[in-house]
Amino acid sequence: YLVQMPTGCGKTATFTHIPRKGRVLVLAHREELVRQPAKYYDCPVGFEIAAEHSHGEDVVIASVQSLVRRLERFNPHDFHTIITDEAHHAAAGTYKKIYDYFTPEKHIGFTATPNRGDKARLDDVYSEIIFQRDLRWAIKSGFLCDIYCLRVNIGFDLSGVAVRNGDYAPGELDEAMDGTADAIAQAYREHAKGATLIFAVSVHQAEEIAKRIPGAVVVTGNTKDRAEIIERFSRREIPCIVNVMVFTEGTDIPLVESVIIARPTKSDSLYSQMVGRGVRLHPDKERLILIDCVGITGKANLCTAPSLLGIDLSDIPAKQQQQIQGPIFELPERAVMAADCPESWI
Question: Residue 298 and residue 159: Cα distance in Å, rounded?
């Protein structure tokens, strides 16, 4: 079965409190996601990741990349329940090899975004969604903070960038975004408030952006002291983190007050994950300021704030789209007005 909950609504706390009727295997694909659930369990927890091995504990939390090479260490009947975190990855071959090996009574996947950009089918793994809550419900119910949405044209042109597996080709995307660092830094100075997280398309772009923002720190997949950087950011010692596809999943930084999307995407899933880094509640934060960096996209549709509510802007001229900003729950009305009214409306 599949459970869908918005990023920031406590998927980890939820699945770790499912009553255990036998041993449990938790699958994740990144180290941060492997470590996080352990603090919620009130029983022995073992790990299968890198040099660490489990020893028959009640709960085993495993990196998919490690476990798929160690299946022979386990009996296929070892686990009563399998839980897959970030289950939108479950259609990948490595996951399926693990699922085919074990014979649990139940397999429950948790994700904020069940729709994969590459259109790979999750119904081969999960029979139905048994619990589902969306972003609107989470904000209206007070579980996530409100969002104020802005659009800033930074002058890129993606009309010639190829699309592969449902999103822009990374190498071509990097080239198309070259030269936008000044505009992104300007958007930060003019619109961002407080602790800011910027999503960049490449290490090169991230470094160029950080050079232009005093105190900014770059975080990439090769950054070794990520935990320390997050702690300093949370103490407001670092005003801005520019990251490259690191904080898209499994990172809990409640203080984030502004998110700048400088990594254009066609993937609803990826976009939701990026925005999700900023919607957690924090006593110092009234709302998230979400800044979409936009440009020319040709016929391809770019995910921006309206995408979070399922609003399709494909039939609205680019000049009109610029007016669809403000409090997130006002966007549907603004989209209707933009579609129906002449270009001069404000």
Answer: 4
Q: What is the dihedral of CA 16, 85, 301, 345, to 10 degrees?
A: 10
Cα 88 to Cα 145: distance, rounded to the nearest angstrom: 24
**pLDDT tens for residues 88-124?**
889 889 999 999 999 999 999 998 877 655 455 677 8
| CB-based contact 287:280 (threshold 8 Å) | no
This prediction has a pTM of 0.86
CA separation, residue 23 to residues 82, 186, 212 (Å): 9, 52, 51
